[in-house]
């Protein structure tokens, strides 16, 4: 538990080196990868998200915490796969077609990864067709769409329509976010959820997975 506390605190302050070394030490002493993930990484990312929402931390703090988490997670992933641990879900994330901004998307992706999701990052300027292709071939649970300018927001609707045309809309949840995006717009285009920030996006995705998993097959 001592090493897990070290990992937790290192991620919280964005100390990637200490987080990385803490994971190594914890694994060497026989700590389960699942315990390190839950109590060290996910717990720390949950706390930095809480601090952000409370105005106690800001985007730079979230970013360095997420990078520290990713450094530690890189060591854990082989152990998680080996032990058969399943991810919380699989998310394809990208900035919609015509939009070349990715800072917000990157932070959301890291927060989702910190919450136990497997992330497929499609990058910038992603066409509806590419989202559909990934959804068809990668068993995606959630598609996360980002837009930072008003003129590209319309392409969020285009992605949802493309999923409908491919008979995938009922199988995949769609969440959206970005500076000009609102909950009203999410409702207008038929998205499953909206979040104004990265920590909220992680909670939203977890909630959607819980709802999906509780439905009868």
Question: What would you say this structure looks like, in words?
Answer:
The protein has 217 residues and is an alpha/beta fold. It has 2 domains: 2-82, Orthogonal Bundle (Methyltransferase, Methionine Synthase (B12-binding Domains), Chain A, domain 1); 90-214, Cobalamin-binding domain (Rossmann fold, 3-Layer(aba) Sandwich). 59% of the residues lie in helices and 13% in strands. The protein contains 9 helices and 5 strands. A 5-stranded parallel beta sheet has the order 2-1-3-4-5, with helices on both faces. Helix 1 (2-13) runs antiparallel to helix 2 (16-28), helix 1 packs antiparallel against helix 4 (59-82) and helix 3 runs antiparallel to helix 4 (59-82). The longest helix has 24 residues, at 59-82.
How is the CATH topology of the largest domain named? Rossmann fold
The geometry reads as: globular
Please identify the top-level CATH class of the largest domain: Alpha Beta
What radius of gyration results from the CA coordinates?
Answer: 17 Å
User: Which percent band covers the strand fraction?
Assistant: 5-15%
Q: What would you give as the CATH superfamily of the largest domain? A: Cobalamin-binding domain
What's the layout of helices and strands?
Layout: H1 2-13, H2 16-28, H3 33-53, H4 59-82, E1 90-96, H5 103-114, E2 118-126, H6 128-137, E3 142-146, H7 154-165, E4 173-177, H8 183-189, E5 193-194, H9 198-214
Parallel strand pairs: 1-2, 1-3, 3-4, 4-5
Helix pairs in contact: 1-2, 1-3, 1-4, 2-4, 3-4, 4-5, 5-9, 6-7
């Amino acid at each position: 538990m001592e090493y897990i506390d070290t990992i937790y605190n290192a991620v919280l302050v964005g100390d990637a080196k200490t987080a990385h070394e803490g994971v190594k030490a914890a694994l060497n002493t026989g700590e389960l990868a699942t315990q390190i993930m839950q109590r060290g990484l996910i717990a720390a990312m949950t706390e930095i998200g809480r601090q952000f929402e409370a105005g106690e931390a800001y985007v730079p703090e979230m970013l360095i915490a997420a990078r520290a988490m990713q450094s530690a997670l890189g060591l854990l992933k082989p152990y998680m796969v080996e032990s058969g641990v399943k991810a919380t879900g699989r998310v394809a994330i990208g900035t919609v077609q015509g939009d070349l901004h990715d800072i917000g998307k990157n932070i959301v992706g890291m927060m989702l990864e910190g919450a136990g999701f497997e992330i497929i990052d499609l990058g910038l300027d992603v066409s509806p067709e590419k989202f559909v292709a990934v959804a068809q071939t990668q068993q995606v649970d959630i598609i996360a769409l980002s837009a930072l300018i008003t003129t590209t927001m319309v392409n969020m609707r285009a992605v949802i329509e493309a999923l409908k045309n491919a008979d995938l809309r009922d199988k995949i949840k769609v969440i959206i976010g970005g500076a000009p995006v609102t909950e009203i717009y999410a409702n207008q285009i038929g998205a499953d959820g909206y979040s104004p920030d990265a920590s909220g996006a992680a909670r939203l995705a977890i909630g959607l997975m819980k709802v999906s998993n509780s439905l009868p097959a």
